[in-house]
Design a protein that fits this description.
Layout lengths: L5 H22 L4 H5 L12 H21 L4 H27 L3 H25 L1 H5 L2 H21 L6
Helix pairs in contact: 1-3, 1-4, 4-5, 5-7
């Protein structure tokens, strides 16, 4: 198997990250329902979420491209793609649950799966290239923070049945 040029691998990874970001963004509705939620005073301003996610997606693309180029083994590459696919699914699902279905309680249950999918990505990426794994640590830290924030929103606003 010949190796793809670095620019092409980075481009594909960037497009994949952009696709997940767009899907997550489309699922995120910062409208009247969200504005009506009680949120903890330590929550960052809403304006910071976009730049933080942009940085995280850029790091994900760089990590994915770095890990991909670190091996020629088809089995490892398939496993890496599967891990990224699971992560993308859980990433978008969280936004759908929290914002579109207006069920932060369901999102709270799902965020653990999102965190585990990031941890799996880190482990798989570290096996291929140390830096590729380390690039994902901010993503895991952000998901952990989001889980704590999600929990606080649920505690401040429950119950969500019938919304």
């Amino acid at each position: 198997m010949t190796s793809l040029p670095r620019a092409r691998v980075v481009g594909v990874a960037a497009l994949a990250a952009l696709g997940v970001a767009i899907l997550g963004g489309l699922a995120t509705d910062i409208g009247p329902w969200y504005a009506s939620l009680k949120r903890p005073p330590w929550q960052p301003p809403d304006v910071l979420f976009g730049p933080i996610w942009t940085l995280i997606y850029a790091l994900c693309a760089l990590s994915g491209a770095t890990a991909w180029r670190a091996t020629q083994d088809p089995g490892r590459r398939h496993a890496l793609l599967a891990a990224w696919a699971f992560n993308a699914f859980f990433n978008v699902l969280w936004s759908l649950l929290f914002f579109r279905l207006q069920r932060p309680d369901w999102a709270q249950m799902e965020v653990g799966l999102l965190g585990l999918s990031v941890a799996l990505l880190i482990v798989q990426s570290m096996r291929l290239h140390r830096v590729a794994g380390l690039l994902l640590v901010p993503y895991l830290l952000w998901v952990c923070f989001a889980a704590v924030l999600n929990h606080a929103v649920v505690n401040l606003n429950a119950p969500f049945v019938g919304r």
